[in-house]
Amino acid sequence: MSPHTSPRHVIDPAGGCPHALNARLRAEGAVAEVVLPGGVPGAVVLGHEALKEFLAHPDVAKDARHFPALHDGTIPADWPLRVFANAQGMHTADDADHRRLRSLVGNAFTARQVERLRPRVQDLADGLLDDLAAAAAGSADGVADLRTHFALPLPMSVICELLGVDPEHRGRLHHLSNTVIISTDTTPAEVMAAVRELVELIATIAAARRAAPGEDLTSALIAARDEDGDRLSEAELIGTMRLMLVAGHETTLNLISNAVRALCTHRDQLALVMDGKATWSDVVDETLRWDGPVSWFPFRYPTRDLTVAGTLVPQGTPVLAGYTAAGRDPSFHGPDADRFDLTRPTAARNLSFGHGAHYCVGAPLARLEATIALERLFTRFPGLDLAVPEAALPHQRSFIGNSVEALPVRLA
Question: Which parts pass through the membrane (predicted)?
């Protein structure tokens, strides 16, 4: 890379709240050199405009064949972040392969198709709020964990229903996906074991749908594969299902959790919504910008030496997308970018769902789930508040996921 005055930042696998680190690195430039866990050199794009350009750049790829160090013996076989590079699916495909894989699931996530899910999401949310109220009433101190009883089971139930996953698998799916994708401080052996079990479990789910097809996305993917064996390989089927299951609940879980934290600690902003001066969609947009569910996400690779915001990023460098950093970039969002403000005119232009060809296919569903969850939650429990000071909430042990591990609340 180009000469720099400060040493590379060594990423802590345990992560933590990213915002202070983002501000420090962003002050030195829109692109930072980093050392990934395992001593692997890489980079992170931190500035809004730089990230927007990088995400849509024609000379940036997602296929790990453009990451030479992964294949030439430089990086050990048990490197924990291989799980991101080696996964097969639309999120690691380029060009025609990417378009082919995306087309197989895209129709299920159009705005029109997602809107048809609204009554079901509302019913699920109302039932889970009953469970949340029961959990709070049954505890000695009137406290319940909102992540456990509401923010997790809502998106998990929706994506599992869409994919035809039987309820008994859902708890294990979340545990495994959290180990593989979110908890970046786990050991290589733990990650590899979790990957194997997750793949086996998804194969079991696919086998059940192959034996008894239904009106679900997994059955549709299997039918597409069986109609034309070249259209979807078994690895692509498993990879696509894994992407849908993991991304379909982990990010929305964090989005709902972060929005609730933000509103509880900014009661004036909550009052704007309750008084009809802002919308729940505004809350979702500003949360995505101010405290997005994904912090630094792997990987993209320049297919040639590339200059991004004045910094040379050599061909084949594994690059992280710094979503939380871009969300608080003062050069785009203004000098008060660190302030949670539902009236901010640039909030809807956040990059938390990506940009360009790989823009999150599930974004309409995540928005629907989050807006319904927040509206139902605060309409039923307008006095809901955190049960502990926000600073005492344990942050996810991850540099990829950005939220807290638990969200204890009192309902009134």
Answer: none
